[in-house]
Fold each of these.
Amino acid sequence: MRYIVNKSCIGCGACAYVCPVIFKMTEKGQAEAEPMDVPIEALKAADYAMENCPACAIVPAD
Ligand code: SF4
């Protein structure tokens, strides 16, 4: 399971707070997802981040 962050991101930082293993904030103030399979221990947090992104900017990459 991988995710990507699209250009709808408004840079609220919620995903990076909820699941820092996968989501990082960039210097441009937007989030990006690590290009790796989500570790099992982070699956719930990553899914929660996707479901609660206020801009619906997180989408599965698979
Ligand atoms: S939760 Fe959504 S809008 Fe907020 S930083 Fe993450 S991807 Fe961007």
Amino acid sequence: MTARSSLYLTLSGTLGFFVGCGGAGSDDSDCQPGTYLCECLSGICQVGLVCTGTVCVNPTGGDDTTGPGDGDGDGDTGPTGPGDGDGDTGPGDGDGDTGPTGDGDGDTGPTGDGDGDGDLDDDADGIPNNQDNCPSDYNPNQLDFDNKGGGNVCDVLEFTTVTGTLQTTWVTNAVFIDCEEPVSWVVTGGSVSVQLDDDAAVASFEINTLEIADFSAVCDDFVTAEFVFDDPSVNADGPAFPVDVNHSFVAHNNGTISGSSDAPHPMLLLSDGQINIINQRPTMANWMLQGQLWTFNANITGGGSSGTLSWNAPNVETTYPEVIVIQTVDFEVYFKGLSGTLNLAP
Ligand SMILES: [Ca+2]
Ligand SMILES: [Ca+2]
Ligand SMILES: [Ca+2]
């Protein structure tokens, strides 16, 4: 101990910046890890430490308290920072942080930054999530018919303003009554949905509902009977309606859909109806006439800003006639034919 003290005193007297370092005690009790201490100049550090250059370090790791970036791989728990390969949460260090992108880890920051990290593509269509106009649906073409930001495959065109007039014929067949009476469906509201594909090859239509003004039909061929429909509506019956409507890339880019449906649209005609027959007026609540809206021509323009649906099927009958029993007489009722045009707007 005497020799070490002599050496320390000699050097401190020669190199002025070490004067006072380590204190007057000149033993090694204050030689802390990572610090420059006078004792290191003699290669002597606190017990358990070794002198590297002029710094006392832990030769086995795990116990120092140094900061980041010291390259000692000791898993320190000192202040965090990048570049030290430890468990901190700073960016740029290749660890498990969730900081800004560009650090090669599992970040969730902005995509397309070329860092090959968390630029996720959930639907595997080659478009990163935050650039994908339908991040959960495969749509590599990214087509957007209405230019509202959502891609076609996850964006339904909704027409909720539906007006126009359709002509049809109310048919009543019974033992002594067999009449056909033309009636008009004045459509006052409703909704029509159109779904497009990303490849501009297929469209589907669904006439969800058509609100119709009250109407009545009178049959007087043999017995006068009046059928009154209160608050009638045509509702879709069944799944969304597939149609084969031409919709090419050119038509898509022009903002148009035009073509004809290729199958009748399943529907229910609902009404709180009444029958007035020979001065008797039974109330027929909740009429439900199952049937079909026949094939139509569709013409949608302006990327969905307006459209028309038109029918020209004057002689097609509903598939399922309704049978109404009045005073033991069976009346078979149905609609025949549909023609006219409905105007659609969002
Ligand atoms: Ca995608
Ligand atoms: Ca997509
Ligand atoms: Ca869209």
